[in-house]
């Protein structure tokens, strides 16, 4: 458990992983509060806080007298693409961008990463936490997962410059496609610690899966953007009849 996470935030993350890996499937009833209390060895108040947040964020539905169920999937929207790097996008707005590495380590692939990256259980995965800042103020906290076989030995310099640039220039990996899902979430203790915002502040949450030209998944990331500091532009092009 992250040192900046509370128990309810940890339980929330664990339950969210189970939902996203479809261990808990859409429409399925999840374990009762009492069962979760026993599993995580925590109080009912702690479990209830985690469930309330997941309900507020649209992952769970709570039915009085019947239990808690996995909610239906949210409606997906496609964001337009851009070839500009993060620092370049910020620079044209007259601001200075900075990327700071928080941690980088190698972890064994779990069930969630099996689903997201098409790897085998316990395969080595590089887990990279970074914070992006604009004019010295944090705006984005990102956790990226990259299989060791894709880009072995990612360094601090790679992480603080451009991961995708390192993919291309250092490891010979071409990012041909990214698939992104955007949601609204509330900042927990860990996110607040990195983004310097108040607990339960609204944040944009984006999950990204990057693929190479062969359709192989080379990166899975989770990013949290301060809602009071970030907006997104979506461009759509319509062909003439």
Automatic annotation (TrEMBL):
Keyword Metal-binding (UniProt): no
Top-level taxonomy: Bacteria, Bacillati, Bacillota, Bacilli, Bacillales
InterPro entries given in the database record: Bact_HTH_transcr_reg, Chorismate_lyase_/UTRA_dom_sf, Tscrpt_reg_HTH_GntR, UTRA, WH-like_DNA-bd_sf, WH_DNA-bd_sf
Name recorded for this polypeptide: HTH-type transcriptional regulator YbgA
Domain HTH gntR-type: residue ranges: 5-73
GO molecular function terms listed in the Swiss-Prot or TrEMBL record: DNA binding; DNA-binding transcription factor activity
GO annotation terms (biological process): negative regulation of DNA-templated transcription
Record flagged with keyword Transcription: yes
PROSITE patterns xrefs: HTH_GNTR
Keyword entries, A-Z: DNA-binding, Transcription, Transcription regulation
């Amino acid at each position: 458990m992250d040192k900046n996470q509370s128990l309810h935030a940890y339980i929330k993350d664990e339950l969210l992983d189970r939902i996203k890996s479809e261990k808990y499937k859409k429409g399925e009833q999840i374990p009762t509060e009492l069962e979760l209390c026993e599993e995580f060895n925590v109080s009912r108040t702690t479990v209830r806080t985690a469930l309330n947040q997941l309900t507020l964020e649209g992952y769970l539905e709570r039915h009085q007298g019947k239990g808690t169920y996995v909610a239906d999937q949210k409606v997906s929207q496609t964001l337009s693409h851009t070839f500009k790097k993060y620092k370049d996008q910020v620079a044209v707005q007259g601001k200075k961008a900075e990327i700071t590495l928080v941690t980088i380590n190698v972890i064994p692939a779990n069930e969630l990463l099996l689903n997201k990256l098409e790897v085998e259980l316990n395969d080595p995965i590089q887990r990279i936490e970074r914070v992006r800042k604009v004019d010295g103020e944090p705006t984005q906290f990102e956790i990226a997962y990259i299989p060791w076989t894709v880009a072995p030995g990612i360094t601090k310099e790679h992480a603080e410059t451009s991961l995708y640039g390192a993919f291309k220039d250092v490891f010979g990996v071409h990012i041909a496609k990214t698939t992104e899902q955007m949601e609204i979430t509330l900042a927990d203790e860990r996110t607040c610690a990195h983004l310097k915002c108040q607990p339960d502040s609204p944040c944009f949450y984006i999950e990204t899966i990057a693929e190479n030209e062969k359709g192989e998944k080379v990166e899975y990331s989770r990013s949290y953007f301060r809602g009071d500091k970030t907006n997104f532009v979506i461009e759509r092009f319509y062909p003439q009849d």
